[in-house]
Amino acid sequence: MGTILTADEARRAALRAQGLLGAVDRRAGVPGVLRLLGAVQLDTISVLARSQELVPFARLGPIGREAIHSAYWSHEPGAARTFEYWSHAACVLPVEEWPMMALRRRHYRSRGSVWGNEVISPATLAEITGRLAAEGPLTTTELGGARKTPGWWDWSEAKVGVERLLATGEVVCVERRGWRRVYDLPERAIPAHLLHDDLDDHACTVRMIALAARAMGVATQIDLLDYYRLKPQVNFPALAEEAGLVPVEVDGWGRDAWADPAAIAALESGATGRHRTTLLSPFDSLIWERRRTERIFGFAHRLEAYVPKPKRVHGYYAMPLLHGGKLVGRADPAREGGTLIGRQVSLASAKAVAPMAKALREAAQWVGCDSVRAETVLPAELAPALHAAIAAEG
Q: What does the alpha-carbon distance between residue 271 and residue 155 come to, in Å, rounded to a whole number?
Protein backbone atom coordinates (compact mmCIF):
# COMPACT_ATOMS: atom_id res chain seq x y z
CA MET A 1 0.00 0.00 0.00
CA GLY A 2 0.98 3.66 -0.08
CA THR A 3 0.43 6.32 2.57
CA ILE A 4 0.23 5.19 6.19
CA LEU A 5 -2.34 6.98 8.35
CA THR A 6 -2.94 6.84 12.06
CA ALA A 7 -6.41 5.91 13.25
CA ASP A 8 -6.81 9.49 14.47
CA GLU A 9 -5.94 10.87 11.03
CA ALA A 10 -8.48 8.56 9.40
CA ARG A 11 -11.13 9.69 11.88
CA ARG A 12 -10.41 13.37 11.22
CA ALA A 13 -10.47 12.77 7.47
CA ALA A 14 -13.88 11.12 7.77
CA LEU A 15 -15.27 14.01 9.82
CA ARG A 16 -13.93 16.65 7.45
CA ALA A 17 -15.32 14.83 4.42
CA GLN A 18 -18.74 14.76 6.08
CA GLY A 19 -18.72 18.48 6.89
CA LEU A 20 -18.42 17.91 10.64
CA LEU A 21 -14.89 19.24 11.08
CA GLY A 22 -13.74 22.61 9.83
CA ALA A 23 -15.71 25.47 8.35
CA VAL A 24 -18.75 24.54 6.29
CA ASP A 25 -19.67 27.06 3.62
CA ARG A 26 -22.91 28.35 5.11
CA ARG A 27 -23.52 30.40 1.97
CA ALA A 28 -23.89 27.14 0.07
CA GLY A 29 -26.52 26.07 2.62
CA VAL A 30 -28.43 22.83 2.31
CA PRO A 31 -27.59 22.36 -1.40
CA GLY A 32 -23.92 22.56 -0.47
CA VAL A 33 -24.36 19.92 2.22
CA LEU A 34 -26.19 17.67 -0.25
CA ARG A 35 -23.42 17.99 -2.83
CA LEU A 36 -20.80 17.33 -0.16
CA LEU A 37 -22.50 14.14 1.01
CA GLY A 38 -23.71 12.98 -2.40
CA ALA A 39 -26.99 11.72 -0.93
CA VAL A 40 -29.16 12.36 2.13
CA GLN A 41 -31.29 9.48 3.36
CA LEU A 42 -35.03 10.01 3.74
CA ASP A 43 -37.04 8.33 6.45
CA THR A 44 -40.63 8.37 7.66
CA ILE A 45 -39.82 8.53 11.38
CA SER A 46 -40.19 11.98 12.91
CA VAL A 47 -39.37 12.29 16.60
CA LEU A 48 -37.24 15.41 16.93
CA ALA A 49 -37.50 16.01 13.17
CA ARG A 50 -37.22 13.88 10.05
CA SER A 51 -33.78 12.51 9.28
CA GLN A 52 -33.40 14.57 6.10
CA GLU A 53 -33.81 17.70 8.27
CA LEU A 54 -31.45 16.48 10.99
CA VAL A 55 -28.57 15.91 8.56
CA PRO A 56 -28.16 19.58 7.49
CA PHE A 57 -28.95 20.71 11.04
CA ALA A 58 -25.98 18.68 12.28
CA ARG A 59 -23.67 20.51 9.88
CA LEU A 60 -25.16 24.00 9.60
CA GLY A 61 -26.77 24.46 13.00
CA PRO A 62 -30.34 25.71 13.52
CA ILE A 63 -31.18 26.53 9.91
CA GLY A 64 -34.89 27.09 9.28
CA ARG A 65 -36.74 23.87 8.58
CA GLU A 66 -38.71 25.48 5.76
CA ALA A 67 -35.39 26.45 4.14
CA ILE A 68 -34.39 22.78 4.26
CA HIS A 69 -37.65 21.70 2.65
CA SER A 70 -37.33 24.34 -0.06
CA ALA A 71 -33.76 23.36 -0.81
CA TYR A 72 -34.80 19.76 -1.39
CA TRP A 73 -38.14 20.18 -3.12
CA SER A 74 -38.71 23.66 -4.59
CA HIS A 75 -38.02 23.55 -8.32
CA GLU A 76 -38.83 25.35 -11.52
CA PRO A 77 -40.15 23.20 -14.40
CA GLY A 78 -37.26 21.66 -16.30
CA ALA A 79 -34.75 22.95 -13.74
CA ALA A 80 -34.86 20.50 -10.82
CA ARG A 81 -31.88 20.78 -8.47
CA THR A 82 -32.54 17.46 -6.73
CA PHE A 83 -34.37 14.19 -7.24
CA GLU A 84 -35.36 11.29 -5.04
CA TYR A 85 -34.10 7.82 -5.82
CA TRP A 86 -32.81 4.53 -4.44
CA SER A 87 -29.09 4.95 -3.72
CA HIS A 88 -27.95 3.99 -0.20
CA ALA A 89 -31.67 3.73 0.58
CA ALA A 90 -34.44 6.15 -0.42
CA CYS A 91 -32.39 9.32 -0.71
CA VAL A 92 -32.48 12.81 -2.13
CA LEU A 93 -29.60 13.39 -4.54
CA PRO A 94 -28.21 16.37 -6.46
CA VAL A 95 -29.77 16.42 -9.90
CA GLU A 96 -26.35 16.34 -11.59
CA GLU A 97 -26.12 12.71 -10.44
CA TRP A 98 -29.13 11.62 -12.50
CA PRO A 99 -26.83 10.17 -15.22
CA MET A 100 -24.89 8.19 -12.59
CA MET A 101 -28.03 6.34 -11.48
CA ALA A 102 -28.52 4.90 -14.98
CA LEU A 103 -26.89 1.74 -13.63
CA ARG A 104 -29.72 1.22 -11.19
CA ARG A 105 -32.47 2.22 -13.63
CA ARG A 106 -31.20 -0.38 -16.10
CA HIS A 107 -31.10 -2.95 -13.32
CA TYR A 108 -34.78 -2.44 -12.49
CA ARG A 109 -35.75 -2.50 -16.16
CA SER A 110 -33.93 -5.79 -16.71
CA ARG A 111 -35.55 -7.33 -13.63
CA GLY A 112 -38.99 -6.26 -14.72
CA SER A 113 -39.84 -5.58 -11.09
CA VAL A 114 -38.70 -3.63 -8.04
CA TRP A 115 -39.51 -6.00 -5.16
CA GLY A 116 -39.36 -9.20 -7.17
CA ASN A 117 -42.97 -10.36 -7.02
CA GLU A 118 -45.24 -7.53 -8.12
CA VAL A 119 -47.33 -7.95 -11.25
CA ILE A 120 -48.47 -4.75 -12.93
CA SER A 121 -50.39 -4.65 -16.17
CA PRO A 122 -48.94 -2.59 -19.03
CA ALA A 123 -52.29 -0.80 -19.19
CA THR A 124 -51.85 0.51 -15.62
CA LEU A 125 -48.35 1.78 -16.37
CA ALA A 126 -49.56 3.46 -19.56
CA GLU A 127 -52.47 5.06 -17.72
CA ILE A 128 -50.13 6.53 -15.09
CA THR A 129 -47.71 8.07 -17.59
CA GLY A 130 -50.63 9.25 -19.71
CA ARG A 131 -52.25 11.04 -16.81
CA LEU A 132 -48.97 12.68 -15.79
CA ALA A 133 -48.49 13.87 -19.36
CA ALA A 134 -52.00 15.29 -19.52
CA GLU A 135 -52.47 16.61 -15.97
CA GLY A 136 -48.99 17.45 -14.70
CA PRO A 137 -47.37 16.34 -11.42
CA LEU A 138 -49.59 14.10 -9.26
CA THR A 139 -49.45 12.29 -5.92
CA THR A 140 -50.37 8.64 -5.50
CA THR A 141 -53.68 9.72 -3.99
CA GLU A 142 -54.44 11.73 -7.12
CA LEU A 143 -53.44 8.78 -9.27
CA GLY A 144 -55.98 6.53 -7.59
CA GLY A 145 -54.94 5.91 -4.00
CA ALA A 146 -51.94 4.44 -2.23
CA ARG A 147 -53.48 1.45 -0.43
CA LYS A 148 -56.23 -1.06 -0.95
CA THR A 149 -56.64 -1.41 2.83
CA PRO A 150 -55.14 0.44 5.81
CA GLY A 151 -52.30 -2.12 5.90
CA TRP A 152 -48.89 -0.51 5.40
CA TRP A 153 -47.80 -2.75 2.49
CA ASP A 154 -51.18 -3.47 0.97
CA TRP A 155 -50.51 -1.05 -1.86
CA SER A 156 -52.95 -0.33 -4.65
CA GLU A 157 -52.03 -1.22 -8.22
CA ALA A 158 -51.56 2.50 -8.94
CA LYS A 159 -49.05 2.82 -6.08
CA VAL A 160 -47.09 -0.27 -7.08
CA GLY A 161 -47.14 0.86 -10.70
CA VAL A 162 -45.90 4.38 -10.09
CA GLU A 163 -43.15 3.10 -7.77
CA ARG A 164 -42.01 0.74 -10.50
CA LEU A 165 -41.96 3.60 -12.99
CA LEU A 166 -39.96 5.65 -10.48
CA ALA A 167 -37.39 2.86 -10.16
CA THR A 168 -37.00 2.50 -13.93
CA GLY A 169 -36.75 6.25 -14.48
CA GLU A 170 -39.97 6.62 -16.46
CA VAL A 171 -41.30 8.95 -13.77
CA VAL A 172 -39.38 11.05 -11.27
CA CYS A 173 -39.95 12.56 -7.84
CA VAL A 174 -38.51 16.05 -7.41
CA GLU A 175 -41.06 17.25 -4.87
CA ARG A 176 -42.82 16.12 -1.72
CA ARG A 177 -46.00 17.58 -0.29
CA GLY A 178 -45.82 16.83 3.39
CA TRP A 179 -44.57 13.27 3.21
CA ARG A 180 -46.24 12.41 -0.11
CA ARG A 181 -44.16 11.95 -3.20
CA VAL A 182 -45.21 14.07 -6.16
CA TYR A 183 -44.55 12.22 -9.42
CA ASP A 184 -43.74 13.85 -12.73
CA LEU A 185 -42.31 12.97 -16.12
CA PRO A 186 -38.50 13.25 -16.19
CA GLU A 187 -38.55 15.27 -19.40
CA ARG A 188 -40.61 17.92 -17.65
CA ALA A 189 -38.50 18.09 -14.49
CA ILE A 190 -34.88 17.09 -15.12
CA PRO A 191 -32.66 19.60 -16.97
CA ALA A 192 -32.38 18.48 -20.59
CA HIS A 193 -28.59 18.16 -20.61
CA LEU A 194 -28.73 15.66 -17.74
CA LEU A 195 -31.66 13.59 -18.97
CA HIS A 196 -29.82 10.62 -20.43
CA ASP A 197 -28.60 7.12 -19.67
CA ASP A 198 -25.39 7.49 -21.68
CA LEU A 199 -23.05 6.32 -18.91
CA ASP A 200 -22.47 2.57 -19.04
CA ASP A 201 -22.46 0.49 -15.87
CA HIS A 202 -18.69 0.68 -15.54
CA ALA A 203 -18.66 4.48 -15.72
CA CYS A 204 -21.53 4.69 -13.22
CA THR A 205 -19.69 2.39 -10.81
CA VAL A 206 -16.48 4.42 -10.99
CA ARG A 207 -18.42 7.62 -10.40
CA MET A 208 -20.18 6.17 -7.35
CA ILE A 209 -16.89 4.98 -5.87
CA ALA A 210 -15.33 8.41 -6.42
CA LEU A 211 -18.27 10.22 -4.79
CA ALA A 212 -18.32 7.75 -1.90
CA ALA A 213 -14.63 8.38 -1.25
CA ARG A 214 -15.15 12.13 -1.36
CA ALA A 215 -17.94 11.81 1.20
CA MET A 216 -16.01 9.47 3.51
CA GLY A 217 -12.44 10.72 3.21
CA VAL A 218 -10.82 7.36 4.01
CA ALA A 219 -12.62 4.04 3.61
CA THR A 220 -12.31 0.32 2.98
CA GLN A 221 -13.70 -1.46 -0.07
CA ILE A 222 -16.79 -2.52 1.88
CA ASP A 223 -17.33 1.05 3.09
CA LEU A 224 -17.06 2.47 -0.41
CA LEU A 225 -19.41 -0.05 -1.97
CA ASP A 226 -21.96 0.34 0.81
CA TYR A 227 -22.30 4.11 0.38
CA TYR A 228 -24.35 3.67 -2.81
CA ARG A 229 -25.13 -0.01 -2.14
CA LEU A 230 -23.02 -1.33 -4.99
CA LYS A 231 -22.55 -5.06 -5.49
CA PRO A 232 -19.12 -6.64 -4.88
CA GLN A 233 -16.69 -5.78 -7.65
CA VAL A 234 -14.28 -8.33 -9.14
CA ASN A 235 -11.31 -5.99 -9.52
CA PHE A 236 -11.97 -3.26 -7.01
CA PRO A 237 -8.39 -1.88 -6.79
CA ALA A 238 -8.49 -1.08 -10.51
CA LEU A 239 -11.84 0.67 -10.12
CA ALA A 240 -10.48 2.67 -7.17
CA GLU A 241 -7.47 3.72 -9.20
CA GLU A 242 -9.70 4.77 -12.09
CA ALA A 243 -11.79 6.78 -9.61
CA GLY A 244 -8.63 8.66 -8.63
CA LEU A 245 -8.34 7.24 -5.12
CA VAL A 246 -5.10 6.85 -3.18
CA PRO A 247 -4.32 3.48 -1.56
CA VAL A 248 -3.57 3.90 2.14
CA GLU A 249 -2.90 1.83 5.23
CA VAL A 250 -4.63 2.81 8.48
CA ASP A 251 -3.18 1.71 11.79
CA GLY A 252 -5.45 -0.81 13.46
CA TRP A 253 -7.81 -1.34 10.54
CA GLY A 254 -6.15 -4.54 9.34
CA ARG A 255 -7.50 -4.23 5.81
CA ASP A 256 -6.82 -2.34 2.59
CA ALA A 257 -8.18 1.19 2.41
CA TRP A 258 -8.38 4.06 -0.02
CA ALA A 259 -8.55 7.82 0.42
CA ASP A 260 -9.86 10.74 -1.54
CA PRO A 261 -6.86 12.87 -2.63
CA ALA A 262 -8.48 15.95 -1.08
CA ALA A 263 -8.56 14.17 2.29
CA ILE A 264 -4.84 13.38 2.07
CA ALA A 265 -4.06 16.95 1.03
CA ALA A 266 -5.96 18.33 4.03
CA LEU A 267 -4.08 16.04 6.40
CA GLU A 268 -0.72 16.92 4.87
CA SER A 269 -1.48 20.65 5.12
CA GLY A 270 -2.13 20.32 8.83
CA ALA A 271 -5.63 21.72 8.35
CA THR A 272 -7.52 22.07 11.59
CA GLY A 273 -10.95 23.52 12.33
CA ARG A 274 -13.82 23.46 14.74
CA HIS A 275 -15.44 20.17 15.63
CA ARG A 276 -19.21 20.25 15.60
CA THR A 277 -21.06 19.36 18.80
CA THR A 278 -24.42 17.95 17.77
CA LEU A 279 -26.89 15.10 17.98
CA LEU A 280 -26.84 12.96 14.84
CA SER A 281 -29.74 11.29 13.10
CA PRO A 282 -29.49 7.49 13.35
CA PHE A 283 -29.60 7.66 9.53
CA ASP A 284 -26.75 10.18 9.19
CA SER A 285 -24.26 9.15 6.50
CA LEU A 286 -21.38 9.51 8.98
CA ILE A 287 -22.68 6.37 10.69
CA TRP A 288 -24.44 4.49 7.88
CA GLU A 289 -22.20 1.43 8.03
CA ARG A 290 -22.15 -0.07 11.53
CA ARG A 291 -18.80 -1.84 11.18
CA ARG A 292 -17.20 1.37 9.93
CA THR A 293 -18.68 3.32 12.84
CA GLU A 294 -17.20 0.85 15.32
CA ARG A 295 -13.84 0.84 13.51
CA ILE A 296 -13.51 4.63 13.43
CA PHE A 297 -15.24 5.69 16.64
CA GLY A 298 -15.32 2.55 18.79
CA PHE A 299 -19.06 3.14 19.00
CA ALA A 300 -21.71 0.46 18.52
CA HIS A 301 -24.63 2.11 16.75
CA ARG A 302 -27.97 0.44 16.13
CA LEU A 303 -31.36 1.90 15.31
CA GLU A 304 -33.80 0.34 17.78
CA ALA A 305 -37.05 1.72 16.37
CA TYR A 306 -37.86 -1.73 14.99
CA VAL A 307 -36.62 -3.61 18.06
CA PRO A 308 -39.33 -4.76 20.52
CA LYS A 309 -39.45 -2.27 23.38
CA PRO A 310 -38.34 -4.72 26.10
CA LYS A 311 -35.19 -5.50 24.09
CA ARG A 312 -34.12 -1.90 23.46
CA VAL A 313 -30.85 -0.83 25.06
CA HIS A 314 -30.63 2.87 24.22
CA GLY A 315 -34.15 3.76 23.09
CA TYR A 316 -36.50 4.02 20.12
CA TYR A 317 -34.62 6.73 18.19
CA ALA A 318 -31.32 7.08 20.05
CA MET A 319 -29.29 9.89 18.48
CA PRO A 320 -25.49 9.68 18.88
CA LEU A 321 -23.76 12.72 20.39
CA LEU A 322 -20.79 13.99 18.39
CA HIS A 323 -18.33 16.14 20.32
CA GLY A 324 -14.66 16.84 19.80
CA GLY A 325 -14.65 14.52 16.81
CA LYS A 326 -15.81 11.55 18.87
CA LEU A 327 -19.12 9.85 19.63
CA VAL A 328 -19.48 10.29 23.38
CA GLY A 329 -23.10 9.48 24.18
CA ARG A 330 -26.62 9.27 22.83
CA ALA A 331 -30.07 10.60 23.60
CA ASP A 332 -33.47 9.14 22.79
CA PRO A 333 -35.62 12.26 22.25
CA ALA A 334 -39.32 12.94 22.58
CA ARG A 335 -41.47 16.06 22.69
CA GLU A 336 -44.25 16.98 25.08
CA GLY A 337 -45.71 20.37 24.24
CA GLY A 338 -42.87 22.88 24.50
CA THR A 339 -40.50 20.48 26.24
CA LEU A 340 -37.79 18.40 24.59
CA ILE A 341 -37.31 15.23 26.62
CA GLY A 342 -34.35 12.90 26.72
CA ARG A 343 -36.21 9.69 27.48
CA GLN A 344 -32.90 7.98 27.95
CA VAL A 345 -29.56 9.76 27.88
CA SER A 346 -26.38 7.69 27.85
CA LEU A 347 -23.00 9.30 28.51
CA ALA A 348 -19.56 7.81 27.91
CA SER A 349 -18.04 9.79 30.78
CA ALA A 350 -18.45 12.93 32.85
CA LYS A 351 -16.73 14.85 30.05
CA ALA A 352 -19.84 14.28 27.91
CA VAL A 353 -22.21 16.01 30.35
CA ALA A 354 -21.74 19.62 29.20
CA PRO A 355 -21.70 18.75 25.46
CA MET A 356 -24.91 16.74 25.86
CA ALA A 357 -26.63 19.62 27.65
CA LYS A 358 -25.52 22.01 24.91
CA ALA A 359 -26.68 19.69 22.11
CA LEU A 360 -30.07 19.09 23.73
CA ARG A 361 -30.63 22.81 24.23
CA GLU A 362 -29.67 23.65 20.63
CA ALA A 363 -31.96 20.92 19.29
CA ALA A 364 -34.82 22.12 21.50
CA GLN A 365 -34.54 25.69 20.29
CA TRP A 366 -34.37 24.51 16.68
CA VAL A 367 -37.68 22.62 16.93
CA GLY A 368 -39.40 25.36 18.92
CA CYS A 369 -39.19 23.89 22.42
CA ASP A 370 -38.48 26.25 25.31
CA SER A 371 -37.39 23.70 27.91
CA VAL A 372 -35.38 20.48 28.17
CA ARG A 373 -35.78 17.56 30.54
CA ALA A 374 -33.66 14.43 30.89
CA GLU A 375 -35.41 11.40 32.33
CA THR A 376 -33.31 8.23 32.61
CA VAL A 377 -29.59 9.05 32.65
CA LEU A 378 -26.88 6.40 32.35
CA PRO A 379 -24.70 6.05 34.28
CA ALA A 380 -27.09 7.19 37.00
CA GLU A 381 -24.37 8.96 39.00
CA LEU A 382 -24.06 11.53 36.18
CA ALA A 383 -27.76 12.49 36.37
CA PRO A 384 -27.31 15.37 38.85
CA ALA A 385 -24.51 16.87 36.77
CA LEU A 386 -26.54 16.61 33.56
CA HIS A 387 -29.62 18.16 35.16
CA ALA A 388 -27.48 21.04 36.43
CA ALA A 389 -25.81 21.51 33.03
CA ILE A 390 -29.20 21.59 31.29
CA ALA A 391 -30.41 24.22 33.76
CA ALA A 392 -27.25 26.27 33.20
CA GLU A 393 -27.87 26.22 29.45
CA GLY A 394 -31.08 28.16 30.17
A: 51
